[in-house]
Amino acid sequence: MGQMQNRSKNRAVRHRLTTRLWHWLNALCLLVLIMSGLTIFNAHPRLYWGEYGANDDYAWAAVGSSQTIGYVRVGETKIDTTGFIGNWQDSEGKVQTWAFPGWATIPSYYSLAEGRRWHFFFAWIFSVGLAFFMIRSLFNRHVQKDLHITRTEWRPSHIWRDVKNHARLRFHDDGAVSVYNILQKLSYIGVIFVLLPLMIFSGLAMSPAMDANWPLLTDVFGGRQSARSIHFIGMFLLVLFFIVHMMALVLAGPLKQTWAMITGGKREGGSNA
Amino acid sequence: MRKLLTRRSLITGAALGAGGLLSGCDALSRSPAFQNILGSAEDANFLVQRALGDRMELASEYTIADLSPKFRANGTRDPGTPDYTASAAQGFADWQLRLTGLFAKPQIFSLAALQSMPQRTQITRHDCVEGWSAIGQWTGVPLKLLLDLAQLQDKAKFLVFHCADRLGGRPYYESIDLLDAFHPQTIMAHRLNGEAVPVENGAPLRLRVERQLGYKHAKYVTGIEAVATLDNIGSGKGGYWEDVANYEWYAGI
Questions:
Q1: Peptide bond into B184 cis (omega under 30)
Q2: A1, A66, A235, B239: least CB-packed within 10 angstroms?
């Protein structure tokens, strides 16, 4: 008991157990949700704004495919994506004209029903996990201690200095890897408290039953097709976050950092990158 | 020692998880047992979505200004059978809707009889499982009025909608439970945007069950059968797409 009190007062590990468990559960959920989401997207690879939108309506973004080419159109700009999106070869060398290729989807073959089952099962785990992590992070003061942005940090000069440091690939000027810098705090807060909940609510806004239960939800997003577009853009931002997250990991020492996210790591000294 | 074990099992778990995820998803996806596990989330969707709102909550309704310029058709665009084509040629004057099964007073309605009953007109959003949506104005007779005339027996738990079209050689059918059957927006529609329902959209009669996805809205409806269980209809999953492609019976999301 005494040891526990001591630990909670003066934490020895860099990443708390809750943070670590949630991090890996969340990584698995997001991977499955993105890949099964791409299967669902393949059923109708066109995005619209507003309440309605079908094949005869204007899509602000769409994947075009034929036996010879694949392309992505955003607005009036067409990008040739032959071999990658809209026209690609499966593992048997056969040309497929689904939007996203088999290696990016769950399951790797087209099955809307199976994609939806994967998506909704992991959506539940993801949502419950996120809610638990948010509440726990407020109660164990992870948010207030590690993610709270101080008045000094909000100063433009401070943010600009951090931007310059990032551009020079110097992430922790004082060498304390345990302390998050302003850009890190902003991106973690943005993802955990804005982007991830946005994914849940824009997903729910597409449900006809939820439209009857909570009509305001769909209205907030400006209609079911807007919610679908926002859901897709949110997915795209999460992929970007993942790429930046991986770049930071590689630059900060991938083995040591990953090990710390598994075992907790040391909070003071020793684990500076 | 305890710590070592924990680390080791964590790493093994993570490695198995990552490797398994990439190579094993398809195998898992094809396994009926795993499908059942994934399917449990659908049961949760059903329970939570039904619990969240007033059970008679209405789906959003829109105005004429919100209508889709073209209401997209999907699935069968023309049943094309000799019977259907002959009926279409005379404006479906001989079309019949039969209420059979667990009713105290089974009924047969002509299209004209349905049209002379009290009507409901609603402008709603049709949401396809594929992701697209279309807004249309539907006019039809509330299903509740037909059920009141035919009088459901106590054993009846579901309504099965039999259709004139076949997909891949199998007759199309769908089913709903009694909560949706008695919902005020559940109508047997014969008009779309002020005109008789076009053939591609389900002429002369289609179900509108507004709180569910498009494949539940059976087109070309010829019969409504009241049943205690869905086991003996089709392959037993409650609908054409449910039987053929494992779509969910409850399509609220």
A1: no
A2: A1
C-beta atoms surrounding A72 within 10 Å: 18
Identify the bridge partners of residue A80 per DSSP, sorted by sequence position: A71
Q: Are A202 and A238 in contact (CB under 8 A)?
A: no
Q: CB distance from A117 to chain B under 8 Å?
A: yes
The helix-helix angle for B32-52 and B2-30 (nearest 10°) equals 90
The three-state secondary structure class of B164 is strand
How does pLDDT run across A53-110, given as a tens digit for each residue?
999 999 999 999 999 999 999 999 999 999 999 999 998 899 999 999 999 999 999 9
Cβ neighbours for B149, distance < 8 A, ≥ 6 positions apart: B105, B107
The interface predicted TM-score (ipTM) is 0.88
What's the pLDDT tens digit per position in A218-272?
Answer: 999 999 999 999 999 999 999 999 999 999 899 888 998 999 999 998 875 433 3
Query: Around Cβ A25, how many Cβ atoms within 10 Å?
Result: 18
DSSP letter assigned to residue A8: H
**Cα separation, A271 vs A266, whole angstroms:** 6
Interface test mutation site (partner B, options A23, A120, A229, A230, max chain B beta carbons within 10 A): A120
When scoring A15, A116, A125 by the number of chain B Cβ atoms within 10 A, the one with the most, hence best to mutate, is A116
- Determine whether A202 is exposed, middle or buried from the number of CB atoms within 10 Å of its CB (0-12, 13-18, 19+): buried
Residue B233 pLDDT: 96
The CATH number of B59-245 is which of 3.40.50.2000, 3.90.420.10, 3.90.1150.10, 3.40.50.2300? 3.90.420.10
**Residue A95 lies in domain:** 46-99
| Chain B neighbors of A263, CB-CB under 8 A | 3, 7, 10
Look at strands B187-192 and B195-196 and give their pairing: antiparallel
Q: Please count the structural domains in chain A.
A: 2
